[in-house]
Design a protein that fits this description.
about 150 residues; mainly beta
Length: about 150
Amino acid sequence: MIHYCGDTYKYQVVPFDGIQGFQAPTFDDSAWSTGVAGFGNNLGCPLTAQTFWPGNDDLLLRRQFTLPLGATNLRVSVAIDNDIQLFLNGTDISRGLIDHGGCATRDSFVFTAPDSVLLPGATNLLAVRARDTGDVSYVDLEVLVDTP
């Protein structure tokens, strides 16, 4: 579906808690920049960012994708330094902003979306608020689903 290090996202760097409502499927992100994951500043951790994110702020990401018919059990794996909140089709699947200290590692968190929010055979939206509160910033994601 969506793999670590290589998928293109729409993104915007904002102050903490900036741009409320960005997770809504109807939100207009046409003026946002486009970047390739991972996002970060490449200071001191082993994962290498492809798109610069300065840190000490929030990075908002949006990525549309089409799910195959019959898709179930969508999982989003995360590499993050520091905090993350995930939305699928406007629904918060992380249950708030989740804290992660230390360097980012792949699969630090794995969030599962309820099948009731999936739109198989249609366009779906993954929206992310990544927050950095220190020197090192990094975020990358992988999305997997089960198919019949």
